[in-house]
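Lecture 7, part 2: worked example. A protein chain together with flavin-adenine dinucleotide.
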Amino acid sequence: MTYDYDLVVIGAGSGGVRAARMAATYGAKVAIVEEFRVGGTCVIRGCVPKKLYVYASRFKDLFDVAGSFGWQVGASFDWLTLVAAKEKEITRLENGYTANLEKPGVEIIKDRAVVTGPNSVHLVRGDRDLSAKYLLIATGAHPNIPHIPGAELAITSNEAFDLPELPHSILIEGGGYIAVEFATIFAGLGVNTTLIYRGDCILRGFDEDMRRGLEAGLTERGVKLMYQTTIKALTRAGDDISASFSDGVTAPYGAVMFATGRVPNVHGLGLDKAGVELTSSGAVKVDAYSQSTVPSIYAVGDVTGRAQLTPVAIREGQYFAETVFNNNKQAVDHSLIPTAVFSEPELGVIGLTEREAATHGDIDVFVARFRPMMNTLSARTERMVLKLITEKDGGKVLGCHILGPGAAEMIQLVAIPMGMGASKADFDRAMALHPSAAEELVTFKAPTYTYRNGEKVGG
Ligand SMILES: Cc1cc2nc3c(=O)[nH]c(=O)nc-3n(C[C@H](O)[C@H](O)[C@H](O)COP(=O)(O)OP(=O)(O)OC[C@H]3O[C@@H](n4cnc5c(N)ncnc54)[C@H](O)[C@@H]3O)c2cc1C
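Predicted complex, written out as structure tokens:
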């Protein structure tokens, strides 16, 4: 049987681009089909523009403490300047991704692809069919929109980056990292920001101390938090949008944004026709090698619902290419993934939370809380929190959680010794770097408290 290609990849995002590029480097004839922009969510409307906007919003905190260092600052902010600068940067990255695909010979097809069988896809705009020995589904995910009256009046993270102007106020629904990061961005840029969440605290699944610390940090920056409430309906009210809440209250906002989770992009993709099974949450069901229930069809990244993060999608794409085109079978280890919330204060985490670790045996917990040095000349009272969770008596490090400046950068480096199975004794052997916040991680003496037989002792 001959095919047009060895591999057709659907979706030129983090996972698809890496898989296509590596497969072509290993000698495969590859086409990648993309219906929007090369680079996918991360580059065009995810991680990259998000972090640029977080940087923009953080000047507010810097201006607030600048006076205590002798600076007098008179600053104003122009939203459209930021939007234009962001667009220039993501276009530069898009061009870079395109060049990186073209260099090893990947054919880029700007179209929407629909799967028509185990070895075939249909191009919707071009109205033609392609055949391939292997198909890779790397179509990502899209924002979930609650089914409520007036939902079409709200925006999602897709639109938030390119608003024609900054709203005077915004209501953000959600409690996950995207909701919290956009609350940080809008509040930092001077927008009156409210975060509404059906649970009782933001960032479900994160360590409790970090959740409460971040909650306090957001509140200090003027973000209003409404818990155990949902939006029931939206209606237009002049230039504003009126939101009706589950508690019966109604209030107007300049904009409303949903950050209520992301849904795998499988709708209308034809996977059912090819016999590809989905999980109960609607993601493509894959094994450890990213192979779907149809042997010639693989899937990587957000569409598989494993961990919706760029480095994970990239690693899955890389290992798919290794396994299928380089005769080097590789399964991605999803067990120790460092993650960050680029909020203000920033949060970086890896490994088990205190609650999880306490169910795994006897543990020691080391906690440091202190004012970041940057704040010591000012009136700011916010504290940084570093927490190290280890097996008892100097054993293996099980979790590390940091809230405060530089948390994400620190956690990336902590991921190295933790991946090597480092113990508390290994951390202690490291010489401290002074003055830094990270030195706390290698200078902890006695545990702040412990858990013995599941019971908290001390603290
Ligand atoms: C606001 C936001 C902030 C984020 N911040 C971070 C962060 O800080 N760190 C982090 O690690 N992750 C972050 N993420 C998550 C990250 O962007 C995703 O995990 C990552 O992009 C997933 O890569 P992917 O290859 O699976 O899919 P994507 O990057 O989404 O790429 C999928 C591509 O497929 C295309 N496509 C879909 N269907 C078809 C079709 N039928 N035919 C042709 N093309 C199709 C889409 O247009 C898209 O370009 C963020 C996400 C969002 C939304």
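The longest helix spans residues 79-102. The longest strand covers residues 128-137. Keep this in mind for problem set question 3.
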